[in-house]
Write a structure and sequence with these properties.
six-stranded parallel beta sheet; 13 helices; alpha/beta; six-stranded mixed beta sheet; Rossmann fold; 12 strands
Length: 297
């Protein structure tokens, strides 16, 4: 379905897109439009819907028609990683990719999700006069979204990450996958069962499950109340709505934010990579992009 974004239709412009299923809701084109205007880049950025079994075919068609790069979203991040001939360290760590591009006829991939999250969290904690260094984190979920952010959180200097998931074995598997990195960083990485959650207090609770897309929350309001303090930040990776998890957090008197900042930051990383800009001279307007997306709801 590359006729949704055919690079040949935009002469004189480098063409990029976000590919996924579903995809109509994506705000990535708006974010890249903000960045392109700010930096005077001649690009077009659109959306591509791919059938579940056609990701490779659709991606090949896009690049064969002259496309320069793709952001990859649910459910194709694992496939994107496998397609690439060159894999950035962040993608290797996550075993998944949300960026694909072509250089010298070779396919490259990277994963900017984790760095996008930590950039957003640094901004949020700085606004509170705090930092990520030394904090205790609870990560809810053990799927691809969680997998992509563990190593960047470790790199940001957090003191501990506890992973809680409905299927405890998946949380345990993630701990094993990243145990070497955690040990080297001298931080505590562990799996906890949902039933054990009332045994600790956390500075940051991240909902990396898909519950935010529905009206559910991964933990009950009572459990949430038992594991927070007055300065705990509740962060839901879903954006564009106030999730049940966020509603419960706000009702309990703590700050809750959605994942829009993460979306904008990971888009900025893709834009930086693809356009090879000197961002020391022209840093991207992250707040402007966030405001533009909020205004579009």
């Amino acid at each position: 379905m590359t006729d949704q974004v055919n690079p040949k239709d935009y002469p004189g412009k480098d063409v990029y897109a976000v590919i996924g299923n579903p995809i109509a809701h994506s705000k990535s084109p708006l974010i890249h439009e903000v960045f392109a205007k700010q930096t005077n880049q001649a690009i077009h950025y659109g959306r591509i819907f791919s059938d579940l079994n056609d990701f490779k075919k659709t991606t090949l068609e896009f690049f064969e028609c002259g496309g320069k790069g793709l952001n990859v979203t649910i459910p194709f991040k694992l496939e994107a990683y496998k397609l690439a001939q060159h894999r950035a360290p962040r993608a290797q760590s996550a075993q998944a990719a949300n960026m694909l591009w072509v250089e010298n006829g070779q396919w490259w991939c990277d994963n900017s999700d984790g760095e996008g999250l930590t950039r957003d969290l640094r901004r949020l904690f700085k606004e509170r006069g705090a930092s990520l260094s030394g904090i205790h984190v609870l990560l809810l979920g053990a799927g691809g979204a969680a997998q992509g952010v563990i190593e960047p959180l470790i790199g940001a200097g957090v003191a501990s990450i506890s992973i809680a998931n409905r299927t405890h074995e998946k949380a345990t598997a993630l701990v094993q996958q990243f145990s070497g990195v955690a040990t080297k960083a001298q931080m505590n990485l562990k799996a906890v069962s949902l039933a054990e959650l009332n045994n600790g207090s956390y500075d940051l609770i991240i909902n990396a499950t898909a519950t935010g897309l529905s009206d559910a929350s991964p933990i009950s309001k009572d459990v949430l109340q038992a594991i927070i303090h007055s300065d705990t930040l509740a962060y839901d990776m879903v954006y564009g709505k106030e999730t049940s998890f966020m509603q419960d957090a706000k009702a309990l008197g703590i700050t809750a934010v959605d994942g829009l900042g993460m979306l904008v930051e990971q888009a900025a990383l893709a834009f930086e990579t693809w356009r090879k800009l000197d961002l020391q001279k022209t840093p991207l307007d992250i707040n402007g992009a966030i405001a533009a997306v909020r205004a579009s709801y």
